[in-house]
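Worked example

This section walks through a single chain of length 225. The input is the sequence exactly as stored; nothing has been trimmed or padded.
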Amino acid sequence: MEHRPKTASIFTLIFVLMAMLATSSTVTAKVYRWVDENGEVHYSETLPPNFNDIKHDELDSQGIVRAKDQKMTPEPPKPASTDEPKELPRDSSGMQRSKAMYSEKELQQRMDNFLLLRYDSEQEILDAMTVEINQLEYDRILLQTSQQSMSDAYRSQIREAAARQRSGVEVDQKIISTIKDLRNRMETYQENLAKLEVRENEINKKFSTQLKRYQSLVHRQFKDS
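Given that input, the structure is written out below as tokens.
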């Protein structure tokens, strides 16, 4: 009967044990990544002293982040919730918004009363809309006139620069700056004209809504009387 050499079995066992140890060390190895007070990033197998309250990341031996923003000292427990109502949202200045004085129904009633007190007829609503539209039209004419003046000056400077180039004379830096300034001002006028267009649409929508609401309220009053 043949017997296998015991030496081969021993070597096989040693190889298996070494592989298991290597695998275990790979799994359990841990690297800490942390930032000092100067903003420099550090990597180490242990955290420096007095670092318990500073957040750090934990990486495995392959450099993969396993946990972010860890702290050795646990976070304090959150206070127990109470039955008190939640704080109202704050405005842009950080001040707490006050509670609403009226419900939506009450607010709508007040707006309806104000609408009936302000206007005596549908024509008055249309007249008020016409006044605001005419004011916008006046502003539009001023902007368009200024824009045309800027456009004429712009074309004049362009022609002068082109004439200098054709004659082989270097274009003065002052002319280039003037052309750039005129172009920027023309773009600003165009943006303001576009804003007037948006404002006009808002006015039409506002008075259209008021007119429909006024008609509804008057019809309701007539029906109830």
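What to look for: Strands lie at 30-35, 41-44, 56-60, 65-70.
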